[in-house]
Amino acid sequence: MIATTGAPGAVRELAIADALAWEATCLTGIAAGHRAAITQLWSCEPALVAPAGMARLPGFARACAQATDAGWPVHLRATGGDLVPQGPGIVNLTLMFRGPPDASSTLEDAYKRLTAPICDALSNAGISSCNGSVSGAFCDGRYNITVMGRKFAGTAQRWRPTAGGMAVQTHAMMLMRTPEDKTIDMLNRFYHDCGIKRIIHASAHVGLQDLVQPDEDKAAQHRFLRMVAHRAHLWSTPQMS
């Protein structure tokens, strides 16, 4: 069974803790064979989400306390990557599926399956995009979705072996609005408190709001998310495309 929640393009509002727990539960369901695939758009309250490995850093506890006091509670996730913000202006796409039992599935296949619906929706809006790293972007990686050399979406994935193959969780966070300076400042403060020498720049990112005409902002976002949901559903088949 392929599962989606709500009308096509509808964004489910979740508390970040509930969203992370929901993803873990769904991946378990995929691994157990209860579902073939799951797609969901969702958003949450302001928070910072870090990979579990970051918790081993000596300054992590202090960084979390400082961020929480500033209104940015910190949560850990099972997927890899780096520190990311969540909150208003960000919509997440979770896409999970069962991979085949042979060795034909690769990380690149899974990232293509995740990013293709987003790139298709951008193209439909007249926006050219590609995959690639962006210097100065948060959670930078070669499977970012970029527009005009700036990061529009970041991606991550997690694989779980099963008796019949692999259960795959992929996740993309899409910027509906370009991050504000206060968000970037919070990320840089967190890195500093953790003892990480890394600087994030607001100019390395771009949101959908800055890529469409101002009077088309809400309508364009609605059309974009509807197409992302539709295309993601088409990619959600039991076998890798």
UniProtKB/TrEMBL annotation:
Q: Which residues form the BPL/LPL catalytic domain?
A: 33-236
- On the tree of life, the source organism's domain of life is Bacteria
The record's InterPro entries line, in alphabetical order, gives:
aa-tRNA-synth_II/BPL/LPL, BPL_LPL_catalytic, Octanoyltrans_LipM/LipL
- Its protein name is BPL/LPL catalytic domain-containing protein
* Pfam families (UniProt xref): LplA-B_cat (PF21948)
Q: Which PANTHER family match?
A: OCTANOYL-[GCVH]:PROTEIN N-OCTANOYLTRANSFERASE (PTHR43679:SF2), OCTANOYLTRANSFERASE LIPM-RELATED (PTHR43679)
